[in-house]
């Protein structure tokens, strides 16, 4: 390396890998979250629905009763779409990590981007299906809100999209012209 040579390093792929890792982490936390929909005396996650029964006596504390949500078709479909998106994201992360570590496998970046865009479509379908079917099928007599678990699902989807876009950038064309 001579004194006059200048190297420009663009860390797009490293930032993309970080986005995919964050998406994977957010997706796992969203899948395990106990709070997707909450209301007074009601909580709904991807796995179970809990409601608080009224206390029989003033001195007695009311108890939560929970049951599985895997009896409803739309909740199973939402869960399958989210799990499929998480698995595709995991595969994309592993391929991207191996490609980035080897350094010469640039052709795999497009494959990773396709995997991530597929995961975005799966996640977005699940995250749009969930509130539509929840509001359509459940009539709560009280105010309810979509809570942090649902928000983390959207956060994971946004990071997946960002990682996919960054993996689509062809920085090698620009870097080769600099040398």
Task: For the structure shown, list the relevant keywords.
disordered C terminus; 179 residues; 5 strands; five-stranded antiparallel sheet; 62% helix; 5 helices; alpha+beta
Describe the protein's topology.
Layout: H1 12-32, E1 37-39, E2 42-44, E3 48-52, E4 64-68, H2 73-102, H3 107-137, E5 144-146, H4 148-168, H5 171-178
Antiparallel strand pairs: 1-2, 1-5, 2-3, 3-4
Mean pLDDT: 82
What kind of assembly state do the chains in view correspond to? single chain
Tell me the strand order in the biggest sheet.
4-3-2-1-5
- The helix/strand order is HEEEEHHEHH
- Low-confidence runs (pLDDT<50, min 5 residues)? 175-179
Beta strand %: 5-15%
Straight-line N-to-C gap: 12 Å
Largest sheet: 5 strands, antiparallel
- Secondary-structure class: alpha+beta
User: How many helices in DSSP terms?
Assistant: 5
Report on the structure:
- The chain is 62% helix and 11% strand.
- With 179 residues, the chain is α+β, with helices and mostly antiparallel strands.
- Helix 1 runs antiparallel to helix 4 (148-168) and helix 3 (107-137) packs antiparallel against helix 4.
- It starts with 11 loop residues before the first helix and ends with a helix.
What's a quick, concise take on this entry?
This protein has 179 residues and is an alpha+beta fold. It has helices at residues 12-32, 73-102, 107-137, 148-168, 171-178, and strands spanning 37-39, 42-44, 48-52, 64-68, 144-146. A 5-stranded antiparallel sheet has the order 4-3-2-1-5.
């Amino acid at each position: 390396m001579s004194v006059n040579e200048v190297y420009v390093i663009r860390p797009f792929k490293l930032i993309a890998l970080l986005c995919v890792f964050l998406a994977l982490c957010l997706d796992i936390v969203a899948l395990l979250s106990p709070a997707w929909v909450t209301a007074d005396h009601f909580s709904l996650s991807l796995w179970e629905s809990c409601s608080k029964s009224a206390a029989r006596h003033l001195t007695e504390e009311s108890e939560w009763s929970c049951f599985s949500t895997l009896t409803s078709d739309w909740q199973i479909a939402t869960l399958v779409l989210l799990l499929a998106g998480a698995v595709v994201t995991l595969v994309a992360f592993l391929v991207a990590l191996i490609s980035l570590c080897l350094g010469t496998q640039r052709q795999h970046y497009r494959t990773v981007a396709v995997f991530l865009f597929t995961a975005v479509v799966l996640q977005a379908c699940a995250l749009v299906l969930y509130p539509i079917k929840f509001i359509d099928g459940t009539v709560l007599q009280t105010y309810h809100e979509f809570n942090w678990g649902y928000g983390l699902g959207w956060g994971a989807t946004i990071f997946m999209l960002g990682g996919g876009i960054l993996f689509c950038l062809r920085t090698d064309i620009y870097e080769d012209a600099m040398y």
